[in-house]
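Q: Fold this one first, please.
A: Sequence and structure below.
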Amino acid sequence: MQFEPPDDRITDNTGSTEQLNDLVKLSFFTNIGKAISSAKTVRQTLDAVMEQVGIIFAPTYWSLLLRNPRTGDLTFSIVVGSGVDKLKGVTIPRGQGIAGWIAEEGKSLIIEDVSKDSRFSPEMDKMNSFKTESIIGVPLMNGHKVFGVIELINKLDGQPFTSLELNLLKTIADFAAIAIEKAYYLRALKKIATVDPLTGLNNRRAFMGYYKKEAVRCKRNNHPFSIMMIDLDGFKKINDQYGHQAGDDALKRVAGLLTDNLRASDFASRYGGDEFAILLPETNRAEAENLKERIQKELGKQNKVQDIRVELSIGIQESDGSCFNDLMSRADTEMYQEKSLKNEMNISDMAENLQSLMEDAAE
């Protein structure tokens, strides 16, 4: 089969140089594939893509815009080049400019002279005191849906972008889309494996993993940490009296209460059923007791305005070099001791409290 060069390929002596440059560009694909496929997160993937774009195309500046799936607006997520830092985080309304057109149509585009194209919007140039002359851009797609745009502005050598360069960029975008999708699903699977779907807190598995890391770190730095075990009192009663939706709402309410009162470094989890566990780094027992008091105080305020009253029993243990199971067991024991104190009843009130006592025994 005879090879036929693209229509825009020059075949004289000047063309030979261009062909050599094109072959050099094509040789980068091995490196592109390695760089993009080895990235483990979406951010690493995006950074790898933009680094390779800079190496291959030598644009004056280049950007990656991510598309809002609800509004269709585009936001500059990564911007590379001198004097264009102001663009990062800027949002382009749906359909505006060359990037907006690419996102709406899902098509690649090459423009040798933007002054002759009505789709070009000069707003970004005004913001950066910059003059755009030529552009190539390609959509990043997941199936038939556009989730981003890669856009290259002006070549450093002053020449317009070529059709081959557009095809190269399209191939890179295909690589990138696959790698980004992989990174996204890996993150989603990790979240499914470590996050409780009802409350949005970490689950027991994630808590145990975090505990092991924190125990090593605190032992190395000789810093304390504390464990807080929390039980939602009368959870079965809430389910039986008000329905399972009310029970779910109560669990979510507790999760929100904990999240609102914890530090960014604290690690909260739904440990199982109606139990929650919190790891408090660099926190001694006295400090943990202060947090417990604050949580109970805030819960009291909530109960004044909520139809269903929620009560919590909380046990605390400070790390002392014990193994995970021992420390958790002691915190759990303290929590149930507090729970039992709440359930102590005077014998003279037996008739009034017998039913609830039987319900508690059935939990």
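Q: Good. Now the second chain.
A: Here it is, same layout.
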Amino acid sequence: TFEALVARIASISGSESGFVDISKRLAFVLAADNGVTAQGISVTPAEITVSMASFMAQRRSSVCIMAREAKCDVELVDMGMFRKLEGPGIVDRHVADGTADISIGPAMSAAEAEQAVQAGIDLVRDAVDKGYRLIATGEMGIGNTTTSSAVATVLLGKTARELTGRGVGLDDEGLANKVRVIDRAIEVNKPDRGDPFGVLQKLGGFDIAGMCGIFIGGALYRVPVVIDGLISSVSALLAVRLCPKAVYALVPSHLSAEPAAMWIMDELGLSPIVHAGMRLGEGTGAITIIPLLDLIIAVMNDMMTLSDIGM
């Protein structure tokens, strides 16, 4: 319920008076590329990541337009696209020029995974220092529903066929290929379900690693962090497996149309409010819930109580 969400936000924020303030909020959109796109797992070419990131930097993408209406700031973070972007509106946390192809070997080195997770933690620290009271998560990266589904398959102990969705419009043949690629990646890398950091390193992406750090940072710096869709959900699950108390910083938003999303929400014990079949990414689902939170927080902060009316 909304009341439970506001109670969660008040708890992680340490509000002793019960008054909740999320008026200063920020969405981090983490951009990264994935080497597994070489296996034809997406109908969209990998070059689109940089193109869309450029639009975001100019505040012209869907999430930027929605965030403007929700009075939420947006920061585009380059975690590791195939081509490094520089200029106004871009936060440079570039780890490498994309990850390696997970169907051949590990996505990244242990050092790269650690760097990306730490970058996410540091982003939250800097945001809190600037006075932000709520963080929303988003991503941009062709192929990241494949990496996310691979990570979820291992962490949840399910099959790739159960958890893998169509992403941006795959047909039946494309979906079958995507499942085969994930199965091959798991067979080649042999990730250990009990080693979440190893799962991230072998099967994840720089966007997933960075968001994992953001969720850990939320718990560390006591600021609520809104989960977006599949990629964000997988990152949250990784964060909780690495740091169980990170669960207290998590705020669900919507239930992604990707099949793994429901399983992950159940595993985290969270109930998304918005059920709209969204799959756009970028943090659009996370932004959607902010005006709804504003409404219920306004009521809870200002509504008369029974004692106010003498009862």
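Q: Anything worth noting on the second one?
A: The mean pLDDT is 92.
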